């Protein structure tokens, strides 16, 4: 199993990356990692994610109560905890505000167009959750029906949340969402979208099933702890 020290280094690394890439500004965003059955390592509230030190990180329980750390837990921890409860296969969560994807969320538009084969294989669908005030129970309620069958979700007038087997996977999914949003925006500006056919999507879904199996197999061989429950199938277009 990966040590807590390594998890702390990963959070600092990817926190800096999402800040440098402009996926967050000021004290926006948050990242977390599942340390064990009842402990979550997370970024603190009100701090730039590109300027953190290991001692700034906080350990909390599955109710969001701080176990250790000198800073306070983010008010948005409930969103992370919801995902961990609903997805035992998930061990890391990234929440950010990548500009183009968040623009789609602010416009009330999901990224559900079957435009890119790579996105269908790596992510499947990217739905849009209804607006709810950040850091409230209502946000968790808006996300709850979408979490089991998706690996990335747009949140109306808010941002994006992605999650996966580890922090690297969760971060890469955030990159994929923003990259796809930029391409989708270009197609809108050009005034034309050439969508994949239902038959094309069906073939890609078969490839996606193999991709997910290979990804999980690679992680399992890496010695990481996994739930005996299988990952739920991703929703399709």
Shape: globular
CATH level-four homologous superfamily name: Class II aldolase/adducin N-terminal domain
Characterize the biggest β-sheet.
8 strands, mixed
- Secondary structure class reads alpha+beta
Fill in the CATH topology: L-fuculose-1-phosphate Aldolase
Radius of gyration: 17 Å
Please give the alpha-carbon distance between the first and last residues: 36 Å
Unreliable residue runs: 222-230
Number of strands: 8
Per CATH, the class reads: Alpha Beta
Run of helices and strands? HEEEEHEHHEHEEHH
Examine the secondary-structure arrangement and name the CATH architecture: 3-Layer(aba) Sandwich
* SS summary, helix count: 7
**Mean pLDDT rating:** 90
Which SSEs are present, and which pair or pack?
Blueprint: H1 4-20, E1 30-34, E2 40-42, E3 58-60, E4 66-68, H2 77-86, E5 92-96, H3 99-106, H4 117-122, E6 128-129, H5 137-143, E7 152-155, E8 159-164, H6 167-190, H7 198-221
Helix pairs in contact: 3-6
């Amino acid at each position: 199993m990966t040590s807590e020290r390594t998890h702390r280094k990963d959070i600092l690394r990817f926190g800096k990356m999402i800040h440098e890439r402009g996926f967050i500004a000021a004290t926006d965003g948050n990242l977390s990692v599942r340390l064990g059955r009842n402990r979550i390592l997370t970024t603190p509230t009100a701090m730039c994610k590109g300027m953190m030190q290991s001692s700034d990180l906080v350990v909390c329980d599955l109710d969001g109560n701080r176990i250790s750390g000198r800073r306070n837990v983010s008010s948005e921890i409930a969103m992370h905890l919801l995902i961990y409860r609903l997805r035992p296969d998930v061990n890391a969560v990234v929440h950010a505000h990548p500009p183009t994807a968040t623009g789609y969320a602010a416009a009330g538009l999901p990224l559900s167009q079957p435009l890119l084969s790579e996105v269908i294989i790596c992510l499947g669908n990217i739905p849009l959750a209804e607006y709810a005030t950040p850091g409230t129970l209502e946000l968790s309620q808006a996300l709850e029906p979408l979490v089991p069958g998706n690996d990335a979700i747009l949140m109306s007038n808010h941002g994006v949340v992605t999650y996966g087997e580890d922090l690297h996977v969760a971060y890469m999914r955030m990159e994929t969402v923003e990259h796809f949003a930029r391409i989708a925006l270009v197609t809108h500006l050009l005034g034309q979208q050439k969508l994949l056919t239902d038959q094309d999507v069906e073939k890609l879904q078969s490839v996606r099933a193999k991709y997910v199996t290979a990804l999980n197999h690679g992680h399992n061989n890496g010695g990481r702890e996994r739930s005996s429950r299988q990952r739920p199938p991703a929703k399709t277009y």
